[in-house]
Amino acid sequence: MLFRLLIVLLITLSTSHLWAKPFLLVSLPDEKHIAVFEINSRTGQLTHVRNHKTESDPGPMSVSQDGEVLFLSLRNAGGLASFAIDHQTGELKHLSTINVDQDPAYHWQDYSGNWLITAYYHTGRVSVHAVDGQGRLNSKASFFGETALNAHGVAATRDNRFVYIPHTGPNLIVQFGFNDQTGQLTTLENGSLISAEKTGPRHLATHPTKPWLYGDYEQGNKAVFYEIRPDGLLNTKQVISSVPDDWPNGKGATARMTLSEDGRFVYVANRGHNSIATFRITPRTGELSTVGIYATEPNPRSFAISPSGKWLYAGGQDSGKIAVFKRNRRTGVLTRIDTIDTGQRPWWLQIIE
Prior knowledge:
Strand order of the largest sheet: 3-2-1-28
Strand content: over 45%
Helix content: under 10%
Number of helices: 1
Distance between the termini: 33 Å
Shape: globular
Largest sheet: 4 strands, antiparallel
Oligomer: single chain
Order of helices and strands: HEEEEEEEEEEEEEEEEEEEEEEEEEEEE
CATH superfamily: YVTN repeat-like/Quinoprotein amine dehydrogenase
Number of domains: 1
Radius of gyration: 20 Å
Number of strands: 28
CATH architecture: 7 Propeller
């Protein structure tokens, strides 16, 4: 009996992510492919292993909650695609492509793993599509509704009850109730959170353990801290600059922002200033304090942190290069250690493991 249990355990381990390798995927829309780089977990070094051709120009990517499926925006074609991930080779096996709306700017699979929620930049809409057990997208949306122009991100509370869609044009976050049994979004009463002119909420990320939400103001070059109330509505608690005090007001724009997996640091990309700003999250209050601002390649639209938390990769859209940083997991400090070529206009960086 013990022998059988050991055999089952070995089989389970051999098919798990225990032996998985980390890979960095880079969307290159001008070349209509995704560049695949293997990450050396010890040194952070990137090695190009292949290019994965796509049916149209690839844009933003996201990974399913179980890590098995990659979702991809085909922005100009107005499509969403899904791929099974080979964790040993980084190869992508096509599962499905569906026609949606123009310019799907961001998507995220909900915590139940049953739905893909997508924001559409040009049309100002949000959709919810079912995802089956194999990672295939249902072509018929369970929800498709208008919000406002320049919808640019998706975030949700950890209990899956509330969803937030930021909009860079009208300075707006629309706050929804979410039914993860039916895939329906319902705008909350007083659910429009409007910020000041020329702020432009762009991306949002939920803290892993606290009722806190973090974001960035695209036009304002700011990081933002929100408190999530029990009714799902947001209170803006803090706005802090992501660029130095002497940087000209209104020049440049933020892009990607995210949290470290441990919920201790926020990172914001500054286009124009060409940098990554790092903020420490105060454990008791959730407020942000600046750790440092670190130079990248020109126009850092997207960046990604390795699963180990030891490396950060920032794409330079205007240079066709990636800045490689060593990341101090205790302090959040970034140290640039390498620069590599990617191809034209790296649009989105996504790590799979």
